[in-house]
Amino acid sequence: MIRVGVLYGGRSGEHDVSRCSAASVINFLDRSKYHVTAIGIDRDGRWYVQDEPEIVEDRDFGHILELNRTGNWAVNHYECNGRLCIRNCDTKKEIQLDVIFPVVHGTFCEDGTLQGLLELAMVPYVGADVCGSAVGMDKDIAKRLLRDAGIPVVPWIKIRKSEWIDNPVAVKEAVVSRFGFPCFIKPCNAGSSVGISKVKSAPDLGSAIDEAFEWDRVILVEQAVNAREIEFSVLGNEKPRVSGAGEIRPRHEFYSYAAKYIDSDGAELIIPAEIDRQKSDEMGRVAIEAFRALNCSGMARVDFFLDRDTGRFFLNEINTLPGFTSISMYPKLWQHSGLSYGMLLDKLIALAFDRREKKESLRTVFCEFKDEVRKIK
Length: 377
Fold this sequence. Notes:
Elements: E1 2-9, H1 15-28, E2 34-41, E3 47-50, E4 55-58, E5 62-65, E6 73-75, E7 84-88, E8 94-97, E9 99-104, H2 113-120, H3 130-137, H4 139-148, E10 156-160, H5 161-166, H6 168-178, E11 183-187, E12 197-199, H7 205-213, E13 218-223, E14 227-236, E15 241-242, E16 246-250, H8 257-262, E17 267-270, H9 277-293, E18 298-307, E19 313-319, H10 329-336, H11 341-360, H12 367-376
Parallel strand pairs: 1-2, 1-9
Antiparallel strand pairs: 2-3, 4-5, 6-7, 7-8, 10-13, 11-12, 11-13, 14-15, 14-16, 14-18, 16-17, 18-19
């Protein structure tokens, strides 16, 4: 039986969202195929193995996975027969896991840092690798790569915190002259719409920039588009496939954190999206191109803006570890395409093993070269 470790929680502002997603993953993993261990990551970065994963009610998220903070656990950062070993330093109890399913979001979780640890341990894990995770998380770098790949993105500028501190007047003037109002202000490295503001007038610009800088030292200003929000789910490694299109119809000013997770009536999910077949096929093709351009693997949710005025579309962002509740768009799009939630989890775990197997086939030691050097000497 495959031993699966489900990681959840984390140090980011999306800690609670992760616990909500993890509750669904834990619930749907097939116990006839997998021995499941839940590992909660606290807000300070400490890992805690959960003896009995417990799903509890939550005022905001409905149900979340409990995080019991017991034990003093250490994790290997070196190869251990292709497994992740987690050891309780107090009791000497050790857990060995064959594959890791990170159900985590945001910084220190989805940005390549966690993936780097798992790479060092040489353990299979679900989702994008270090490069794909880091690039997908950094909105500025992702936009540059997508633009260079010929994929349309919304116009933007990047602002560093030092620039804002040194000359806020010049920054404001640059924003107004480039975009006017409304415009969007967002942290460069964050998800779930954390720290994002829609600015409608000059008096609100400074506070929106300050809010974004609370979450990152680099922020983006983006042109506002009168757009519909269209999303696709991508699944695979070297040969990814794409789902049909879904549409998010926010009932708030935009698809904010509150609309996504707090307000049960914050948005409507339309599956399939009500767009013509030719446009849907074109956007699906671009979703796969973007997946490859950013070196993604395993899975990603690809989000587009479809301009109501011109009919043009822009790729907004890629989420390499998207929300995974039973009502999240990523699994729901696959369900509509005929792949159940449980089958989707099976496929993602199989893709994790497939990628690790291919990496292990690569050479890392230059024994022959050393032998040739000896002959020359």
